[in-house]
Each structure stands twice: as C-alpha cells, then as structure tokens.
Specification:
eight-stranded mixed sheet, single chain, alpha/beta, about 300 residues
Amino acid sequence: MVEGKVVVVTGAGGGIGRDIALAMAAHGAKVVVNDIGAALDGEGGSAGPAQQVADEIRAAGGQAVPNTDNVADAASAARIVQCALDNFGRIDAVVNNAGILRDRFFHKMAVDEWDSVLKVHLYGSYYVSRAAATHFKEQNSGALVHMTSTSGLIGNFGQANYSAAKLGIVALSKSIALDMQKFNVRSNCIAPFAWSRMIGAIPTDTDEQRARVDKIKQMTPAKVAPLAVYLASDAAGAVNGQIFSVRNNEISLISQPRPVRSIHRSEGWTPQSIAEHAMPAMRASFFPLDRSADVFSWDPV
C-alpha cells in the first residue's frame, strides 16, 4: 500500500505509534521512527525505544531510522522531517501520534500541566506538519494522519488539557485539508480505541471496572495501524478532512459539527424571549453531558 514512500511516525517507540511504524514498514514504507523515550507524563528521555523499533523493522527486512527529536519544539520538530530527507531523500506522509498525559480535574489543574500537554499534542502536530508542508507543496503530494481522541470529540473527566488539544487537532487537520488540497495534500484524523500505557492507569478496584478494562484490552494497538497505512497511501487520494475512529474490528466515520436545530424570530431576540421560547424548544435536542449515554462510552484513548 505504501511501497517506496517515506513516512514519519512520531511517538513510535511504543503503543499505537510502534504498531503503525511496523505496519508502514511491512507495507513497503521507509520509516522515521521518532520517540524521545519519555515517561507518560513527558519527563525523562531515552534513545532506546526509537532504536528498538527501528531495529525491529530492519530485522524484518524493512528500512527505518530512529529519531529522538522533540515534537514540542519547532526547531526540533523540523529536524524530524529533515531526518527523513537526509536518510531517504524525501517525505511522503506524517503520522502525528506523539503524546503525553497530565490528568487533573480542571479546578486543580496547574498552568504547566495545561501547557505541557498542549505543547506535545497540538503544537507538536502543528510543528511537524508545518515542517513537512513545504516539501509536500513542492512535490504536489503528501498525507498527514493526526491522532485525535474521543476525549476531545465528546469530553472526559480530568482531561481538560488533553481534550482541548485533541479537539484542536481536529480543527488543525480540517484547516490543513482546506488550505492544501490544491497541492494534493490530504489531512485526516483517527480517534483510536486501544489498550496502551495512555489508559493503563484506569482503576480496577471493582468487578465492573475490571470487566471494563478487560473489554478495552481486546482493542490492541495493532487494530489501529491498517487505517493509518491506508490513509497514507495513494488509495486514499479522495479522503480528506475526515475523522475516523477504530474500535477493535470496527471503523467509524465521525460526524462533524453541523446545526441540529434553528429557531427564527422576526423581531429578534431578548434574553427573556430566549429563556421562554428558544431554549425550551431546543432543549430536547441538547447533547447529553453524561458520557455513558454516548455511543462511544467504551472509554477514550
């Protein structure tokens, strides 16, 4: 599917990123395996994870190079793209997968917990995509695959930073798709459901919680990889500006915001008339705040 293409996968030292990198290589791509080797909260760093995945790809007969630059810094992110150019002579696709978590209830969230998560997820997706965009424009081709989350699409407890970043990525992707479609550059999002260290801290204190976790464990990172490979391939040439989810063996196309109900009043509105007429009519169409009422209540990743 991606024979001869050069693909950058960020956060590829483990979890979903690792399986995407392996799948890209298995389908013929030359892969830049980017990972700073940090802990889940972004602290620390090691060249080991990126090197191990690159070695695994090469042992299987594929082509890969490790890279430990940080997506959260513009100059460092540009070096990730340059790594592809230096080693393979071009760049054809980017999978923006790198991420960290610093969960905290909103009223307790510190500025650095907000800032660090936005920097990796949202800024990181922008920095790497922007570095690749110039080359995509010049060659009149390219594909961007961004990882969003149901935490951003429908919300989640204790993840205001992560949720804001992940929904921001959706808007970033759609804007890139609109701006760069004339250069045959595509941008799409995946909201993955998969067991990884990103959700490994879910409590298992009760039978209900243990059953819930067992269900999620069935959704392995490898289940997400085929869609990422497809979206990076020429076969997805007509797919642009979309949001997909992968849950075990199920692929879903996610709706994008559209008006659900409108009410017109010829004389205009006052706060009182909104309270008396508009809101009572619209209330039946309100979306539930309770995540358990949503079709995607299997927990976000």
